[in-house]
Queue: 2 jobs
Job 1
Amino acid sequence: MALIVQKYGGTSVGSVERIQAVAQRVCKSVNAGNSLVVVVSAMGKTTDGLVKLAYEISPTPNRREMDMLLSTGEQVTIALLSMALQECGQAAISMTGAQVGIVTEATHTKARILQISTERIQQHLQEGKVVVVAGFQGISSTANLEITTLGRGGSDTSAVALAAALGADYCEIYTDVPGILTTDPRLVPEAQLMAEITSDEMLELASLGAKVLHPRAVEIARNYGVPLVVRSSWSDAPGTWVRSTRPPERSLINLELARPVDAIEFDTNQARVALLRVPDRPGVAASLFGEISRQNVDVDLIIQSIHEGNTNDIAFTVMTPILPKAEAVAAAIAPALSNPGEHGSDTAEVMVKSDIAKVSIAGAGMIGRPGVAAKMFATLAEAGVNIRMISTSEVKVSCVVDVCDCDRAVSALSQAFEITSSPIRSVVDIHPGKNTGKPPVRGVALDQNQARIAIRHVPDKPGMAAKLFGLLAEKTISVDMIIQSQRCHIINGVPTRDIAFTVARMDALAAQEMLITAGKEYGWGEVVLDQEISKVSIVGAGMVGQPGVAAKMFTALAQNQINIQMIATSEIKISCVVSQSEGVKALQVIHAAFGLAGSEKFVVPA
Ligand code: ADP
Ligand code: ASP
Ligand code: MG
């Protein structure tokens, strides 16, 4: 007999008929001999409706009251599903987050789970009942019982956290698609179902906009080794398994808070090539990286900063031994990338630097915790280490530093993040082999809820990135895709660089306002906000060591005249910012370029 946690999303419980169908499915599993805890979302679009009501009353609704309001949606579903189960002759009991004892941080509207009491659930299960739990909600402490919610889409997180706390055999997420597909079938009906995906890949996909799973649910599954499957509540198809390697034993106290950083990684075998002042038009990144991949040069980090006037800077890192080859390719292509007509001599310039190292902090626990990147920058600044390049993904922040600073950087970071010697890994240990035979790209994701902020002329001295991102962290604003420009401007004798990053669109205005005020104190220039962007990303563990993946993505965009505004990479993903109006098209052409389309078309239930 297995203990299973099942979760049903909004569409799966969107009507009385759907709730009855769910009750049938639950009964079938119980009759097969299993014990069931069932987590449900609010019916259909109930939560959206409640949010709308709140904004009709206030443009800035009080967060405590927002949680009070939103938590009601799930409460309706638990009662109705329990009644439906009882009608089928199955004993069942509904429980709110407070009744279970799902204790979270006190941060309203985006609380993280600290601890879950399991005694009451266990008691009901022993009495032969199905326990129906309200997803997405908790309480701030058993003493003051403030209702909290986990953030939109958070019922997945409730389910996986319950599975971890109960030591369930597995967790099933039932939704309106047959599993995890190569991309969102609403945008690309030819998307294909995957039988399985690694939790590392799914973490990136979920954080980059694939809303089929809440990223924090994947984080918990990975940290606690919870077997997780996504399936359709309309069929008996097997769905997609999210696979995690067996993690070390971990305490269930501070479930979502312990250890934002699991490991520190470094690579001292890196060199950087930068092309300054290349034209800001479609096709430039494609021709550069196309040529590089034809020469079989494998690039690691790629960064393209925001354009200034009508030019961009593109920088990438390679392994030191192939620097001469990479430099030769860049130098050969530079004249073709010059900017005709601009100030006569506005030619693209190639700059190389060997003797650099990449130092990264990695860990799923940094998702949605803005203070983590800021702490890394502050730690490096205190150790007197200057950051030459920054590249981020949701689960990793990498900084390029001088090789002579690498040891100091690693030891300062391991102290700051309390990482003992074993998880400090050289990149050689992590990705020893090349061409693993895996497909380079598993999935493509689109995030249309981001905005870009560019800060001009940030004084280039240690500590500035730490200050800037520290200020954002204080306001609990999470940033993504941080990019520091390669170009240096001297303003009143002080060398400066531009820094650009993306934030959730709902945080954008507050971030801009705060940064304009802070700029007066810290001496940076204009703070430019662009809300009209989308971010399109490819993810796949197989892209490590396979040249040509970036070139293929950039070429697909270029062939469709889509201009790339920013590029940021990690080992297993490449993200490009494009204009908002071109986002869906970008997703479609990239999905097709990697041959991910299948012959069947998916129709998502209304
Ligand atoms: P639920 O209400 O069941 O939690 P969600 O709407 O939160 O469902 O998530 C399911 C939706 O996620 C699908 O209907 C689909 O449009 C979207 N989606 C985005 N990316 C993917 C993907 N890679 N695979 C499957 N679905 C995806
Ligand atoms: N009802 C919540 C939402 O719509 C939580 C969830 O469905 O996961 O965001
Ligand atoms: Mg969901």
Note: The chain has 17 helices and 28 strands.
Job 2
Amino acid sequence: MRVLLLGNGGREHALGWKLAQSNKLDLLVSAPGNPGLIELGPVLQNLDLSNTTAVATAAETYRADLVIVGPEAPLAAGVADEVSNRGIAVCGPVAAAAQLEASKSYAKQIMTQAGVATAAARTFLDPDAAEAHLAKAEGPFVVKADGLAAGKGVLVTDNRETAIRWARFCLEGRIGEAGKKIVVEGYLEGPELSVIALCDGTRAIPFPVARDYKRVSDGDQGPNTGGMGCYSPVDIPNKLVDNVMEEIIKPVLSTLAQEGIPYRGFLYAGIVLTDQGPQVLEFNCRLGDPETQVVLPRLDEDLLDILGAAATGCLPDKPLRITDKAVVNVVLAASGYPDKARTGDAITGIDKALADQHVLVFQAGTAESLNENGLITAGGRVLNVVGTGPDLATARATAYRAADKIDFYGKHYRSDIADAPLTPSP
Ligand code: GLY
């Protein structure tokens, strides 16, 4: 099979790594890709993923049998619609279904229709109305830009004035179109999990559950990021995943189907384990990043087979084979991240880290140096350093040993990934 893989982050490098293990893979083309993906096949560095016609034409040119879409923006722009209109299978939802991530108010509406547990929310277009609401609401305050804001559209704060300022900032267009509508919702208290299901339009099967660390600094301090690390497995009862599938994922899929919107591809539910049971914090219409980098190493399946099956509406009616292996991912970030990240610094030591056979390094914000051999930093989250092992403590120690061998100016990372895994509920 010939595959076109869209995206350029650690998630896509991990997808490419796992796809390359399939003996059915004839060609992997990535766009725009990264230096890690260059080692796996041709890379179309200049393909604009928001140009749905250009993407579908590239899929035709390379005679792709399957297009796999990593990030949310091309899905919201309608890449899956256009590729599938050309008769090519695509793993990723159509634009109407991608609204689950691209519009927080739409996601709330679908959850209400589907009877899914989530925080009560109100939508605002007018800054004065949002301020009047926040003036009376109980904290902590959760204010979200309605649209896609590259992980920068959510504020959670105990401070009412800060919440009001952020609401106004968004509604005045200061973060762009995404913030001209906002959702103000209740705060969900409890540990957060990433439950990702692969869907084929009617069926859905869960991938291994992961736990992500979103704040930049140890102890969940500092601003939100795209994710500074994660681990899998998470010690939760199997019944909990069954509940999420039965009470959240499947009702949402059937509600969408009733609206004439079949969902094919990954549906990611950010779940908070509240005292009242699991509730949805957010939906994403794709695999998580950095969750993918710990989930795929645990999968004992041919990824190409199962993604092809999801894209063509024929997922098997049985659970995925998952290994007992533990996997921990430590994200190495560039100086300045999550604000403006410094770029262009030489990266050394990846080969030393990879000398340990229990280590994987997935590239994200990297580029090949134009002046000399080697890699330089080219984004905020630079590398995902992944340790594997028989248990989380071993995988964690392996990941951190490897992280210490890699160097670039201003490298920073959290030192508490997987240091206090969830304890099972009684
Ligand atoms: N790690 C969170 C996300 O992918 O959105």
Note: Residues 212, 227, 284, 288-289, 291 surround glycine (CB under 6 Å).
